[in-house]
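Quick review question:
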């Protein structure tokens, strides 16, 4: 390896630095095991699709490492000034013109510069050169057509009439020559009895005879009569041919000799050749397409390499990666790691292995629709739910209405994991209380309805005497309640005794231990998942072939999702006129807990 490589570490692995034209031209020497990606799709990224299509030499919709290497090598061979590969504008002097291909590119560039009057070739101008070439070729072709039209403006209609019967007229003259050669063939060259018998069955359709000769074949016939004895299926076309072609070219006549026919064909021959020479609207002049390739490669190859061989743009945060298609604003956050999605169900199956919290959204802008997947890497997922709406801004600044359709749940932060057990407990308690309240309300409503119905529909019944008091039954109930209270009391006494047996400074440690016991497993699990977050599966689900463990650690992941913050120097008023009225009970409960802790610490200190 002749090139001296430099690497930078990001995402948990070493990535090659591609900063100079020499770095770019040497990527073919770099071991592909060190490449971050080995393949990427032509579509679905924020990169010039025309450039990618030119690099995609086999046209399969994927850019692979050999194709990128070939594009870089070709650009290096065609440039005399490799500084163009850093985005410098392409000039005539920067093009190597010492071989046939280079000379063609230089000629196309010289013509383009002469037309535009500028000193450098832009990508837009090089791309437009193809259209201008097609326009010039079409104009030249149109000019040549003026002398190729035997009937002027009427030539097109006349040629259509000529084409409609040309094959049948050639066929008729050939049949007559064969009949003159051997009279025995005359009957076979005309319609046979079986053909005529088939035509005679049912309602006769003249078009059914289109396969028969245009007129009756005979050994002594040397001219085709245009208005008598003509096959009914061809009578109309032959009449139109006589009017549009024969009369204007040869004068009015009732028959067409073979000499006349050959004369008509000769007069149409230049027009036929002219039609065949019509230029392709997508055609390019010699060197024009290569000039466009060179201009695009000079502008785009270094950027593409830093999003393919390395993920420099993504990991250095100097700009978005080509796979980042915009920003999703939702739930007070701005998510910058957003990728395009063609099939959400299939995408989620692989992308979930990235260990990222992913939110899939359907985006609508007028009649346009697209699907995206956004990674939430800061904050929490408490308010993320299917059906919530946000706004997606693409890289062109267009805004789209975004609606959540699917959520792939993974830990977002350690803080979220720490509080998740308590939030789950609170939700569980709230749900149970709501269910209990709902059941009680339903029972009360049912009882009221039953009572109202019985009062209005049934006669009053004599009051039922109360059941006698069952001493044994209530004694058992009281005994069970006593046992439960005793057990709770014993547990409370044991807990208090244990706490009193501790030094005062040990009480906070017990409290911290309880918190760790509850939140520790969730935090540990989240820690492992957060450190296993990998960009690879997210991109692989879109057709990439990521070749490295492109990790997204906690600090870097946090930078990919921006939380809502007040502007610097903003004035903030804490007075809310519609805030709920505060009750003293919250403060009283907190005070009692603090007082109890102080008393326990004091008692423990006195006892010691």
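Suggested answer, residue by residue:
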């Amino acid at each position: 390896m002749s090139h001296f490589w430099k690497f930078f570490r990001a995402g948990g692995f070493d990535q090659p630095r591609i900063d100079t034209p020499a770095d770019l031209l040497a990527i073919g020497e770099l071991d592909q095991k060190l490449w971050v990606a080995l393949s990427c799709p032509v579509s679905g990224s924020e990169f010039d699709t025309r450039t990618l299509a030119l690099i995609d030499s086999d046209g399969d919709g994927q850019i692979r490492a050999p194709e990128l290497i070939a594009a870089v090598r070709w650009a290096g061979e065609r440039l005399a000034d490799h500084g163009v590969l850093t985005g410098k504008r392409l000039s005539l002097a920067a093009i190597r013109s010492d071989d046939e291909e280079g000379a063609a590119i230089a000629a196309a560039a010289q013509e383009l510069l002469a037309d535009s009057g500028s000193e450098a070739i832009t990508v837009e101008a090089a791309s437009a050169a193809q259209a201008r070439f097609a326009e010039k070729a079409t104009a030249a072709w149109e000019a040549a057509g003026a002398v190729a039209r035997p009937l002027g403006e009427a030539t097109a209609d006349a040629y259509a009439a000529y084409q409609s019967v040309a094959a049948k007229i050639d066929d008729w003259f050939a049949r007559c020559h064969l009949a003159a050669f051997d009279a025995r063939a005359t009957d076979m060259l005309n319609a046979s009895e079986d053909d005529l018998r088939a035509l005679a069955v049912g309602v006769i359709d003249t078009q059914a005879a289109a396969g028969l000769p245009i007129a009756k074949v005979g050994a002594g016939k040397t001219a085709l009569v245009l208005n008598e004895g003509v096959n009914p299926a061809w009578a109309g076309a032959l009449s139109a041919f006589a009017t549009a072609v024969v009369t204007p070219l040869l004068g009015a006549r009732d028959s067409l000799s073979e000499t006349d026919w050959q004369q008509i064909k000769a007069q149409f021959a230049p027009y036929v050749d002219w039609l065949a020479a019509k230029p392709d609207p997508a055609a390019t002049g010699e060197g024009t397409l290569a000039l466009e390739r060179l201009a695009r490669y000079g502008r785009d190859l270094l950027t593409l390499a830093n999003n393919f061989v390395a993920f420099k743009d993504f990991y250095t945060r100097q700009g978005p990666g080509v796979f980042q298609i915009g920003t999703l604003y939702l739930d007070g956050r701005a998510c910058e790691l957003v990728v395009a999605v063609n099939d959400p169900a299939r995408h989620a199956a692989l992308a979930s292995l990235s260990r990222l919290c992913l939110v899939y959204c359907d985006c609508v802008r007028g009649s346009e629709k697209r699907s995206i997947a956004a990674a939430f890497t800061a904050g929490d997922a408490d308010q993320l739910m299917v059906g919530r709406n946000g706004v997606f801004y693409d890289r062109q600044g267009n805004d789209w209405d975004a609606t959540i359709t699917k959520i792939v749940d993974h830990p977002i932060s350690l803080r979220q994991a720490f509080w998740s057990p308590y939030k789950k407990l609170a939700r569980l308690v709230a749900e149970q209380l709501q269910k209990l309240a709902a059941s009680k309300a339903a029972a009360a409503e049912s009882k009221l309805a039953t009572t109202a119905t019985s009062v209005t529909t049934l006669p009053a019944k004599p009051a039922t005497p109360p059941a006698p008091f069952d001493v044994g039954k209530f004694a058992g109930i009281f005994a069970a309640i006593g046992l439960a209270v005793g057990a709770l009391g014993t547990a409370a006494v044991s807990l208090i005794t244990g706490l009193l047996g501790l030094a005062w400074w040990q009480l906070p440690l017990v409290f911290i231990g309880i918190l760790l016991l509850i939140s520790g497993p969730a935090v540990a699990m989240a820690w492992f998942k957060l450190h296993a977050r990998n960009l690879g599966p997210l991109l692989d689900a879109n057709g990439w072939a990521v070749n490295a463990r492109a990790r997204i650690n906690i600090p870097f992941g946090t930078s990919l999702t921006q939380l809502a913050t007040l502007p610097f120097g903003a004035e903030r008023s804490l007075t809310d006129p519609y805030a709920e009225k505060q009750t003293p009970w919250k403060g009283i409960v907190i005070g009692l807990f603090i007082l109890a802790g102080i008393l326990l610490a004091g008692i423990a200190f006195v006892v010691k």
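Why it works: The first helix runs from residue 21 to 25. The chain has a mean pLDDT of 83.
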